[in-house]
Amino acid sequence: MARVEVFYSLQSDYCYFLLDRLIGLARMDVEIIIRPVLGGVLRLPERYQDRDELEQRYFQIDTARTAAYLGFAYPVPSPIQFKPLSLWMPEDKQPLNEYLNRFYVGAVRAKKGLEFLDNVGRMLWNGSTPGWDEGEYLSHAMAGA
To answer: Where do the domains of the chain lie?
Structure first.
């Protein structure tokens, strides 16, 4: 059986863009091995602090263009809390990400990583659930995994 190993971040636009292709491969009996990683801006924030405004603008254009090409809803609802007026500088405290990543790692350990990403990860990124961190939205999405 063919295998694909993916280092997938819940905080990554580009990982979200990869999701449907991973699901398609899994349907073709390709083993998908998910390795959870924390997004770069959370792991190494100092690396992003002096990024040029032009680079940040290009990132916004490229991700919007990629989403449009793939036909993905993409309202840019990143689960990262950023500092005001910053695209890449996260707030020091990230309680939602800490919470989500614990569930994510647990789902991967339970061999439900792709299902978690399809239900929870998609809900985070596609904008279908404003206020996903309030009420029962997250628990319902997790139950679907």
So the answer is: 3-144
In Å, how far are 17, 93, 134 from 14, measured between CA atoms?
5, 23, 25
Q: Tokens standing for 138?
A: 């997250």
The pLDDT tens digits of the residues spanning 56-86 come to: 889 889 999 999 999 988 876 667 777 777 7
Residue 137 scores a pLDDT above 90: no
Report the alpha-carbon distance of residue 17 to residue 8 in Å, rounded. 11
Residue 63: CB atoms within 10 Å = 18
Grouping H, G, I as helix, E, B as strand and the rest as coil, residue 90 is strand
CA 29, 6, 73 angle in degrees (round to 5)?
A: 90
Residue corresponding to tokens 């800490």: 98
Residue length of the chain: 145
